[in-house]
Write a structure and sequence with these properties.
alpha+beta; 6 helices; 2 domains; single chain
């Protein structure tokens, strides 16, 4: 793995080609991601544009277009997160808060004199407010996920980079991205 360092901002690029494409919807992006994974691409070889805050911090650009960043080695990268993973995270947050509240209430009620009915009531009373807090936090996580993709679409599309090790993998990645409505799909000779 040969690397080149851009001394200006210490951006390291490696001499492994990378396919890049732009997607106009999350659904198309997700389908391309799943197909890339199905044919053997590692999730570590697939990346998206980083969040707006990271982009502004790294590049100082408040306004950008996807086409400006497709081939920019300084563009910050992020891992792909599926809708299923966000749903699981939302469930874990909401459920975790429910069980935490229930546990605290139950521990407070469990004395030698407490009855089973009182303990069950405490679980319900303690768990419901915690579940509400958990649900609100989970919704916030889901909204941030949707906002991340909506922001990219507003700026010209969702960027997807796929590190490819040889010509055969290049062809497969490009074909899959194009099949799922990827546009301006091409390969550059380096990756980050």
């Amino acid at each position: 793995m040969n690397g080149n360092v851009n001394a200006e901002n210490q951006t390291t690029v490696i001499n492994i080609p990378e396919a890049v494409g732009v997607f106009d919807s999350f659904d198309d992006l997700q389908k391309a991601f799943y197909d890339l994974r199905m044919v053997g691409f590692s999730r570590y070889d697939i990346s998206l544009l980083g969040k707006q805050e990271v982009l502004e911090e790294k590049l100082g650009k408040a306004y950008w277009r996807a086409s400006d960043l497709e081939d920019d080695p300084k563009a910050p990268r992020a891992a792909f997160v599926s809708e299923e993973a966000i749903g699981e995270l939302e469930g874990a947050i909401a459920g975790g808060f429910f069980f935490l509240g229930s546990y605290v209430a139950m521990a407070a009620m469990l004395t030698a004199a407490s009855t089973l009915v009182a303990s069950i009531a405490a679980i319900g009373i303690g768990g419901v407010p915690a579940a509400v807090v958990g649900t609100l936090l989970a919704r916030r996580v889901g909204q941030q996920h949707r906002d991340y993709y909506a922001n990219q679409i507003e700026h010209g599309g969702i960027l997807l980079w796929v590190r490819v090790s040889d010509k055969e993998r290049e062809d497969v990645a490009v074909k899959i991205m194009k099949q799922h409505s990827g546009r301006d799909v091409h390969v550059h000779p380096w990756s980050e």
